[in-house]
Design goal:
Elements (H helix, E strand, L loop, with lengths): L1 H11 L3 E3 L9 H7 L5 H12 L1 E3 L4 E4 L3 H6 L4 E6 L10 H18 L4 E6 L6 E4 H11 L4 H8 L4 H20 L4 H13 L1 H27 L7 H23 L1
Helix pairs in contact: 3-5, 5-8, 7-8, 8-10, 9-10, 10-11
């Protein structure tokens, strides 16, 4: 009887979870990169499976059945600290991996979304904002900002590669927070697909990475996050085929 009570006490003080020993991360970014998920629930399951191992005075990376799920059921609010001016939530995959992954896991276990906030500590005063507001600012100041785009294109090859990473992060945030608004997809299409002058600059910098951008745009629609028009989809497909042809010509030379 004393042993049972002791074991229960050990479980009760176990509040730190992570991957099993010698492993790192959640695997969520890999799912997004490879497009190896069918439903948003797959992301939540992957997050839980990767981080359900207990760390405490008594356990080091021990899997205790259902303990992590029970803890997730008690979560009402998920908050992420933004502490560096250099990075918006759209700039790093860590935001959708951890903040988004945890939010989706809580939603999956509880059957309803938690309240999601970004706590911004970059100014003189702490500001807490909703995730959609934070995403909108990241989009406006980065991928839709002409000065930011010009700065990225100064870096041969790597410029468009880094831009393409933001497009992946947008899908990750859409899938884990469901807070990417329709205007974002439409404005990205206008900027990166319909603007012929910018399109040529992107292709000239890195046609392979630009093809990745187009693929992510198509993925937004395929996954149901972007309600693209027939005209937009037609333009996307034409641009994709055009880049594909340029790449084939380049490889033959």
């Amino acid at each position: 009887m004393v042993t049972v009570i002791l074991v229960k006490h050990q479980f009760c003080i176990s509040r730190i979870f992570g991957p099993k020993e010698a492993e790192y991360g959640t695997g969520v970014t890999k799912l997004l990169e490879t497009k190896a998920w069918e439903e948003e629930e797959d992301i939540g399951k992957n997050f839980i499976e990767s981080l359900k191992y207990v760390y405490s005075n008594n356990f080091r990376g021990k899997e205790i059945d259902a303990l992590y799920n029970n803890n997730l059921k008690t979560v009402d609010v998920v908050s992420q600290v933004r502490s560096n001016h250099e990075y918006e939530v759209t700039d790093l995959d860590h935001y959708y991996e951890f903040f988004g992954g945890l939010s989706k896991s809580v939603e999956m276990v509880k059957g309803k979304k938690p309240v999601m906030y970004i706590s911004d500590t970059t100014g003189e005063r702490l500001e807490t904002e909703t995730v959609d507001k934070s995403i909108n600012r990241g989009i406006r100041t980065r991928v839709l900002n002409p000065k930011w785009i010009d700065g990225m294109l100064e870096h041969k090859y790597h410029g468009v590669q880094k831009i393409a990473e933001r497009f992946e992060n947008i899908l990750g945030l859409a899938a884990t927070t469901n807070s990417v608004e329709q205007w974002i997809y439409n404005d990205l299409c206008k900027k990166y697909i319909e603007d012929e002058k910018l399109r040529e600059r992107l292709k000239g910098n890195n046609s392979f990475a630009y093809m990745t951008i187009v693929e992510w745009m198509l993925e937004y629609n395929k996954r149901g996050y972007w309600e693209a028009s027939k005209e937009q989809l037609e333009e996307l497909k034409n641009v994709y085929l055009d880049i594909e042809g340029d790449i084939e010509d380049f490889q033959e030379e």
